[in-house]
Structures are given as structure tokens and as C-alpha cells.
Specification:
The protein is mainly beta. It is built from 1 helix and 13 strands; from the N terminus they run E-E-E-E-E-E-E-E-E-H-E-E-E-E.
Length: 134
């Protein structure tokens, strides 16, 4: 968890570092007024973010834990992580040197809310845009 300075003031947010990110059936959505815009990959494809190590910022991350470094899986495999709700097993990695704060976490069926990506190259096969009015 980090605090970023924004135009609206300080904001607590999650920060993750990743070497690669694979996204099945990518659907990025943003809402403006009564319209939701979806940036979509072709169905059945995998979009990738690769290149330099990248930093992901998110307000909330939820998904199913499928890997946790060399340590045992947590008791509850489905997790939701926010700046105010970081699971104890993630907060204090027992298999990492004291003070590093580094833990390898592998997730599936992930949803990120209000995400920012710094560095890395995003490749989206079959890119298309869809407008949904409500």
C-alpha cells in the first residue's frame, strides 16, 4: 500500500510490481455520463503486458490465489485486497527476508478497480471498442 498525491489530495492505493501480465478475454471499461466504453480483445485471446518490470496501481484487487511463492496457499483462496484490507498472510511474508516486503503472488479470475499501469507494453489481439448506453 502506498499513498499517492492526486489533484483531489492524497489517495491510499495498492502497488504491485510485475514482470509479465497475461489477460484472457480482456475487457477494459470506463464510464462517462450515461455511456460505458469497453476496450475489448477478440474472444478467446490472451492480451499481454511485458517488457520492463512494470508497476500496477489499483484501488481494489480480487481473484483466486493459485500460487504464493514457495509458501503454502492461504486458507481462503478467493481474496479481495484493498488498502484497508490486506490479508495477514500477504502483509508479513514468512518465507522472505525480513523487511523486503516482496512476495510472489499468482492469481486467476482477477478483477482490478481503478487501475493504472506504469511501464510495459500492452498487446491486445483483435482490439475493438464497444459503446453501451444506459
Amino acid at each position: 500500500m502506498v499513498t499517492l498525491e492526486t489533484t483531489a489530495g492524497p489517495e491510499r492505493i495498492l502497488r504491485f510490481t510485475a514482470r509479465t501480465v497475461d489477460i484472457s478475454d480482456l475487457d477494459l471499461a470506463t464510464r462517462r455520463g450515461g455511456v460505458t466504453w469497453h476496450l475489448l480483445a477478440a474472444s478467446g485471446t490472451t492480451s499481454t503486458v511485458a517488457g520492463a518490470p512494470m508497476t500496477l496501481y489499483a484501488e481494489e484487487l480480487s481473484g483466486t490465489v493459485t500460487g504464493l511463492g514457495d509458501g503454502p496457499h492461504p486458507p481462503a483462496r478467493t481474496v479481495t485486497i484493498t488498502p484497508d484490507a490486506i490479508p495477514q498472510w500477504l502483509r508479513n511474508p514468512v518465507d522472505q527476508p525480513s523487511g523486503t516486503g516482496i512476495r510472489t503472488l499468482v492469481l486467476e479470475d482477477v478483477t482490478l478497480s481503478r487501475t493504472r499501469l506504469v511501464d510495459g507494453d500492452l498487446t491486445i489481439p483483435g482490439l475493438h471498442l464497444r459503446e453501451v448506453r444506459s
